[in-house]
Model the fold of this input.
Amino acid sequence: MKKTIFALFIICLSLILPAKTILIKGDYKNFCGENFSLNWKAVRNGENIKLFLNGKVKATLTIKNGKVVKITEIKRVAGKEKIFTVTSPSKINLELKSNFYPFSLILNFLNGKKATEEKKGNTVFKITGVKE
Amino acid sequence: MKKAIATIAIFFTIFCFADTEVVEITPRPWNGYWWPIINGGLCTGLDYNQHPAPMEKYDFATGQPYLATMWELQNHYNPKAPNWWGHCNGWAASAVMEEEPPHKSTYNKVVFYVGDMKGLLAECYQKAYGTVYGTRYTGDNGDDAFNDINPLDFQNVLETYLKDNGIPILIDADPTKEIWTYPLYKYELSYTDEGSTRHVTLKIYCATDIYDNGVLDPDDTEDTHFFTKTYTYDLTLDINGNPISGQWTGNSVNDHPDFAWYPEHIASDNPYISLETVRTIISKEYTSEDDAKEPDNNFEQSHPIDENFIYRIKNDDYFNFFIEPGENVTLKLYFNEYSNYAVGTIYDNNQNFSDYFTYDNASRCAFYNFANADDITNYYLVAEYPIIGYYNDNYSILAEEKNSAIIIPHTLDTSFWDNFVYGAFIPYTIKNQETNEETEVNSAEGTLIGIFENNSQLIEKNVNFTAGFKELPLTVNDCIPLWIKVNCQDNHIKLLSFYQSEGDGSMGLFYSNNPAKRFILPHVPPEINYWWYGLVIVNPSHFKKIRVYYKLYDYNKHLLKDGYFDLPQYGKIVDVFENLFPDVEMDNTSYLEFYSKDNMVVSALYGTRNHRELAYVPADSQTVKEGETVYVTKDIMPQTDNPWAGIAIVNPYDHKNAKLYVTAIGNDNSQNHYYLTLYPHEKKVGVFENFLPDNLNLDDVERIEFKVKQGAISIFALYGDHDQGMLASYLPPRKNDGMITYYMPNINQHNLKTTIFIKNEKNYSAQVKIYGIDQTGQEIESIVISLNKFELKSVNPDEFFSDPQSIKSFKIYSSKTITPFAVIKSDDNKFYDIIGPDFKKETIIQQTQ
Done:
């Protein structure tokens, strides 16, 4: 009974967070020193956030009580797509610093912080649009 | 559940001991090669399989002749590049993201080895980028960048990728600014705890990008090559025994990974190679078949050699070719399967055995040298089925042409025009860099060849070219060739081809060209009914077909049209603009660029529709580069009543602005400067006065100098008369102070007379010594003339020299900055043309080892 109530509570919490779509432009500098850009779309549904690249899910942040508890990324390995999962807190912290995925920008933005972030390796992420 | 465990076990195995952990990924990333830039192996075949190289095969098999190869040659082949530059990152990224090519394949009759496909994949991933852990040390971004990646982060990355997810990770194994990327697929981690400190030893295993003998095995799929490195570091533990920080220890302080990364975004550097096409090539099976030129199984069915064709052999292949006097050609036969050896046999025109090719182990090709032919001689080459083993693979024939070819790409064989040609050798000095010893080179022999519709014919052999311009024979059996060339060992031979209209017209003039791989034509004239504008393109090789790509740009710096022309061996295209580019308006076209993997000759022609005038416009194969200064002098159109001077400048590059420091030198020696920036593909064109600062009048100016401060430009000067249909143009000379020697022809036949003009470009007096040179190159007479500041003086040979008829050239010498030019005209002004300061004596610095 307690479990059911707790589950319902979580669902309610999720429902009260409105779905939100965030558009992000990532400006990167590759190892040859050349610039290129990628346009990300982050969709928050409940607490969780899915990151889309070129219309496909590329990564997911699983968030519980405001804390990231799991990161999954789709990586190409030996010709096939593979799900890459991170669950250890210390390793999640490392992954959140990523200069490729705009994880920390999205989380900070949702917490009301700035809409631009510069990462190591000269990557610059910028929020370009938000849809409620 | 059991199934799940089995699935995991396929990807990695973990052995946990009290203090040791071994994690290994299977299948491991595949071995490959890093394709160093100094060798450019993907396009040159150097340090790999020779020819055909992987890019050559890709271009040929995909029907885009030379594009990927040409790009690779221009961008990824540089023998002077730092020796660590290469494709290690491209290979490593592809080795973790792509399946290993399983076997050699056949795609459009071309055999691709596993090594070829790995090379193409490396290029497809050369600009791949992704998640980076740690900061790349660039040599100047501080100690922190050198000290990281932090060992705790590194350990976490290895555990996340290899242990938790069964995915390899890429590392830059070199902590310095150099990057050496390898896929890491296994580690052994052991440690001992001492209080709150954990002493860790980490041994990593990486797949290698080079094999024991330094050469990629084209067939290798064994993936047994790896290297290991052992690092040590200390981790600080919290009260629960969890690591919270770390630092490298021992040798690892200075020798640890720079950063780790995993590719997420795939991008090729070479725009002419597609990953999807490479994957298709990899998916194909190997099939046994012959090349598309079969049958070529006997002398009668033999094909002309085509260097750019990639052949396959199932039985003996027969080729025909010819060698001209003056040519020095080494034919090379490259068999791609190096475990076999190449066999080539030469037969004479009567199909009698002549000789065998010699096999050279070092360059892994068979070769045969042809030189000193007495006449144009026909041969057969038979590429033979190797004796050892079954063979059905690629081979290429390359003709290494060691002689120069000086080319006049256009002749006129009509009754309306009288075409005649002059030639001379422009002397030069060779200066030994070490001893400063100078050697004068004053003459060279050459053989004059005429190219006709289906063959070439000898016009004259062993012509001795000296500094004295002399008229050369042009016909074979009274027929004028389509174009002519001089085979020689020294490219300082220059030819001038004159075209005189027999009607009431005038005269045009063509300079000889040295073949090059890129030409810029900086100006297309506006469409005026009176004038036509045409182009001539020549393939100078009789050993290969060539593809000449063109790009036409508009005045908004945009690409207006691109495409290509295919030219057969010794082929020539000549036509007016509207026929060559029927869907493009001349008025919209700013300039043209031609480029090819192979040498070619391109020139432009202007003419009047009533055949009154034909003018040559030089195509630029050099460009004026950063730090160089050229100048355009104003008064080069004397003896006409209403002259004008024009300048066209183009920035022919894609990404870099050209910044020019422009100086207008006034006749009071004032210098007015301004900066001129040309964006990529921008052109500035106008009459001389358009390039002057606002405060200057044309009458007050002597010349304009253009110093290239950044980028590079193509520039040419054009002169004409407002009232007469005459044009002359030249590539402006480089500015150089100090002693200078020019040569000018003295044309005094065909109703022509030559007058020399010399302009003093400085505001102080100058003395100029002019030598008369006879047909043997001897100086037979000399005069000295004095010029006041900025003075333009004419020198009529009839007035200044005692025997002007014996003088074939003038040698003009001064220690001051002068601009000489020659006006060649008939007494009635019907024929008129100008030769600019084009024939300057060079000093060539001889490099010593």
